[in-house]
Amino acid sequence: MNLAYSKLEENQGYLDREITAVGQGASRREAISCKLWPWIAALATLMTVSILSVTQMKRDIIRPDLGQVISCYYNTPSGDGSAQLQPSGIGPRLCTHINVAFARIVNKSIHLEHSQYDALQQVVKLKQNNPMLKVLLSVGGAGENNGFSEMVINHASRKIFIKSIKKVLKDYSLDGIDLDWEFPVVHDQRELSARERQHFSQLLREIRLEYIREKRDYILSVALAAPQSIVDVAYDVDQINLYVDFANIMTYDFHYYTKFTPFTGFNSPLYARSSEELFLATLNINYTVHMYQSKGLDRNKIVVGIPTYGHSFNLVNPENPSVGSPASGIGALGAGGFVDYPTVCAYTAAHARGATLRWDEQARAPYLYCGAEQGTPVPINLQECRQGTPVPINLQECRQGTPVPINLQECRQGTPVPINLQECRQSTPVPINLQECRQGTPVPINLQNIQKDGSVDMSHAKLHHKQSDM
Known about the structure:
About 20% of the residues lie in helices and about 20% in strands. The chain is an alpha/beta fold. The strands form 6 sheets. Strands 1-2-3-5-6-7-8-9 form an 8-stranded mixed barrel, surrounded by 4 helices. Strands 16-17-20 form a 3-stranded antiparallel sheet, with no helix packed on it.
C-alpha cells in the first residue's frame, strides 16, 4: 500500500494545505457526494490521519510520543450471519490504532455483548503480527448518549465507570479507551444536560489522573463533533486538550438529505465552495480544524476524520446534478442514504458507461451521479413514430441491462414495447430507426450498443412482423 500525505506547514497556526491520501492503483471515486479513499476499502467507517506527530500533556503531564496516528474505527460484526468484515480480515499494519466500536454504558459501567468480546479478543491478536499496533475500546457512538448522561452526573457515578474502564483494559490487554459521546448537552434530556459540558471535562480529568496514579501509559482519546454549533455548547475545548492524547474530529456528515436540507452536498469537503455563505461556509474540514485550534486544541492532537462511505440523494431534476441542486429524498443506493465502499465499487462497475464522475476543485472533493439508480423506472419520450423515420429518444435516466416497457404513444395505442437498455448515456439523444411499427403489435427492440456519437447500431434488431403502412 502506498500512502502519501501532503506536508502540513505552519501558517499562523492554521491548516491551509490539502490533506491527501492516495491508494495504489486506485482513482478518486465517490457515490453521490461521497469522499472515498480506496486504500482502506471496506475496513471501517472511518479512518483518521493525525496532523503532527508529537503529543504531550500540559501542566507537567508528559505523554510519550505517539508518532503518526492512523486511527481506524472497526465496527464489530453483528453476528446475524451477514457478510461483514471479520477481525481476521484486517491488515495488522494498515492502521496505527484500531478503535473497536462500540461498547455501551449500562448501569454506569462499560457493557459489551458476547460477540463483541470475541471480536475484541481477535483484534488484540493482530498485535502478534504488529507489536506496534494499539488497540482501544471505543465507548458510545451515535444514538448512545443516555448512558453517558447518567454516568457523568456526579463523582460517584464517574468513579464506577472508571473502575469498569480499568477492568476491561486489564482483562483484554488493551492500550486505551476512546470516548465517543454524541453529544454532551445536545439532546432532549434537559434536566440531565445542564452541566454535562463541565461533567465531561471532569470525567476526562479523573480518567487521566487514575492512569497517572496507577503509573500506566494507557491512551485516552475522544471523538468530537465538527459543526461549531455543537462544539460551542458541548465542549470546553481547552480542558479537553489538557487530558486527552488526541481527538478524532468527526469531519464528515457535513451534508446529507433531511427535510431541512433538501439539496445535495459533499459528505466531507476539504474547503468551502464560493457559493456557500454563513453557516454553510463552516461545513468543511478546513474551517473545523481552524475553529478547534482557535479554541485551544493543540494541532498535534488533532486527528482529521476521513469517511469511507457516502450519502446518496434522489434528484428532483435528473438533468441538474450540480452540487447544491434540489433533492426530493435519499437515493435508493445504500441503506438509509448511507452508501458503503463495496456498494460504491459495485455501482460504479455496473454503471461504467451511464454514470458520471466529477471533481469539485473548490471543495476538493469528487462526486458521482447517474440519471437513475437500480430499480428506478426509465421514462423515455417517443416524440414521434413513423416507419423508417429516425425517432429521437432522450434517455432521461439509465439502468444497465434491465428490460424497460415503453409505451409508443404515437403509433400503437397503449401496447407496451420491451426495450433492453444494454448501455446508455444520461441525457444523450439516441436516434432509433423503428424498422417495424404496427398498431397493436409489440415490437422488441434491443439496444445492443450506443455509439460514441449517440446513435444506435440496429444491425442486430430482429423483425418479427412484416412492415405495414400506418
